[in-house]
Amino acid sequence: MKKYLVVGGVAGGASAAARLRRLSEEDQIIMFEKGPHVSFSNCCLPYYLSGTVKKAEHLVLMSPEKFDRQYNIEARVNHEVVSIDRETKSIEVKNLLTAETYQESYDKLILSPGARPVVPPIPGIEKVNTFTIRNVLDIDRLQKSIETIKPSRITIVGGGFIGIEAAENLVEAGHAVTLVESLPQVLNQFDLEMVQILHKELIDNGVDLIVGDRVSGFDTHEVILESGKTIASEVIILSIGVAPESELAKEAGLKIRSRGAIWVDHNYRTSDPDIYAVGDAIQVYNPLMRDYTMLALAGPAQKQARAVANHIHKIPVNYPGYIGSSVVKVFNYNAASTGLNERTVREMGIEYDYAYIVPKDKVGLMPDSEELHFKLLFEEPTGRIIGAQAIGRGNVDKRIDVIATAITAKATIDHLKDLELCYAPPFGTAKDVVNMAGYVASNLLHDAFQHIPASRIRELLENEAYILDVREQREWDAGHILGAKHIPLSEFRARMNEIPREKPVYIHCRSGQRSYNAILILQHNGYRDVFNISGGFVGLCFNEYFTDKMTGRDSIVSEYDFK
Ligand code: FAD
Asked: Does 81 contact ligand 1 (Cβ within 6 A)?
């Protein structure tokens, strides 16, 4: 019989303990959790704020008693592991209810201590009610404080997943919410042109969204920003980021990677072969970046935990690396991404291009058919897929999951064209979004046409570029780029002679598909310098709207048209 100890009783810890039991009935398994709960749903915590999850206790999935009965695993809650003695292969544990300490020996030790919310020493922080969201106690305390304080406004600092989900759930509970993000955008895994859709969705749903400004201090019931702006607010939620809980490992002399993460090898073994580490406390290898990176997500933590139990039982571990796939709901929109975004690709110096398309997610006749904004990044000249982002009201995760699978299988854009995916009208289109993205990407790679992003239109207008709208009259009347020329596709061949040959022509329709046809007509007629405006008029409107509202700058369209 072996004795296995696990530090941390949630995503990674509980998964490792359960898998260890499945692999052996004999071994002794003890899991230590310093909090009062094991195996709770971190990911559902924000949904308690809106009442989607009705009771805080519903967030706890397994009790220590259930672990004992179902798995014969001893789960010791309110027990903090305070040190590791690698010489004697033992840990020191503190019972937080009695302050007693004791030793426990191990054959193997698994660390899954997670990451703690970062709370920077912002001046005046002691004068305000600040909260972080990590566990059931945190969310219960936050909810109870909101009920007592009855804040006129809640400010959330940080626009990552947790900040965004908290904002949505608090608005749904009827609160006034300000969200402050120091970067120019929320949800940094998306490119700005994509995330502008979500910026609009946040402000349309009443979130007072401030980007590109940083909290510089607090005063009583007040948040002070670097710009000088102040926000009256009685409750402040800090969701700035997380830092690995690696002190225990550090003090035990285990090797540490950058940003304080515990060093592990491809079997998740630390620098001590009898100690493993998984989850938010480690860095993972990203094969696209060819580097180690933080990835605080539940799926990777649980997969690593399973791998550790397997390795302990001499089952070979496969380490394909992690490309970072995630999804988030933002009011009526869903947003998913995988792999690298354009910003990262550019920073890495990879030669690349991308397809940005806005097709319907289902057959248009279906009542819930919606537009889906889809961006696919690929390497040049190989066509290897390196990332994708999808934002829409419908099913984005299916599309991004296909791309994540394709990236893992080292597929190229040519594979996407030929992928045989499920189709019936309520689910998709005969040529799915993913196939369409493959076609467009392949056309770009093989120089069938050229494109520019909608984010360049403002600059092109300032330089009096020739911008051509090929939508029909009704669409033009509903809103168009100020200064653009208009030749509907239905009149295009007859009026082509109006289009200059001596200067570049930038063409758009609503989504980029009809304008592609116009480009082919021009190219077949000897035009060379013609560019499709990726994402079309709808992409442009999304790209401009939030920044126009934020800054009060002049709009470059007569009317926005999102329908
Ligand atoms: P945790 O699950 O955090 O568990 C670590 C545990 O170890 C903690 O409970 C801690 O108290 C305990 N511990 C630490 N040190 C000690 C010690 N010395 N002794 C005893 N116990 C100790 N991921 C997704 O993929 N999708 C989502 O939608 C999503 N939503 C999230 C929403 C919120 C609000 C939060 C906070 C996280 C969310 N995550 C999501 C991230 C996901 O929950 C984490 O990546 C995952 O839980 C990491 O697992 P872990 O085991 O490393 O750490």
From this structure: yes
- The C-alpha atoms of residue 484 and residue 556 are separated, in whole angstroms, by 10
Mutate to test the pocket of ligand 1, among 7, 37, 43 (most ligand atoms within 8 A of CB): 43
3-class DSSP assignment, residue 187:
coil
Mean local confidence (pLDDT), 265-272: 98
User: Is 509 assigned a catalytic role?
Assistant: yes
331: left (phi over 0), alpha (psi -120 to 50) or beta: left
Residue with CA nearest ligand 1 atom 28: 43
What is the pLDDT averaged over residues 418-429? 96
Ligand 1 nearest atom to the CA of residue 278, by list position: 52
Write out pLDDT tens, residues 42-54.
999 999 999 999 9
How close is the Cα of 296 to the center of ligand 1, in Å? 8
Ligand 1 center to 82 CA (angstroms): 18
- Cα(298) to ligand 1 centroid in Å equals 7
Tens of pLDDT, residue by residue over 5-49, are: 999 999 999 999 999 999 999 999 999 999 999 999 999 999 999
> Is the Cβ atom of 160 under 6 angstroms away from ligand 1?
no
Q: Which residues, in sequence order, are CB contacts of 52 under 8 Å at separation 6+?
A: 169, 172
Say what the pTM is. Answer: 0.96
Q: What is the C-alpha to C-alpha distance for residues 138 and 238, in angstroms, rounded to an integer?
A: 12
Q: How far is the CA of 455 from the centre of ligand 1 (A)?
A: 37
pLDDT of residue 340: 98
Average pLDDT value for residue range 264-280: 98
CA angle 75, 78, 82 (to 5 degrees): 95
Asked if residue 32 has its Cβ within 6 Å of ligand 1, the reply is: yes
Examine the pLDDT at 563 and tell me if it is beyond 90. no
The secondary structure of 140-170, three-state, reads HHHHHHHHHHCCCCEEEECCCHHHHHHHHHH
Both tokens assigned to 90:
């033992």
Continuous H helices in 4-101: 11-23, 64-66
Regarding the beta carbon of 46 and ligand 1, being less than 6 Å apart is answered yes
169 Cβ closer than 6 Å to some ligand 1 atom: no
Q: At what angle do helices 192-204 and 536-551 cross, to 10 degrees?
A: 60
DSSP run (H or E) holding 200:
helix 192-204
Is there an atom of ligand 1 within 6 Å of 353 CB? no
Distances from the Cα of 24 to the Cαs of 71, 285, 306, 378, in angstroms? 11, 30, 14, 45
Confidence of residue 501 (pLDDT cuts 50, 70, 90): very high
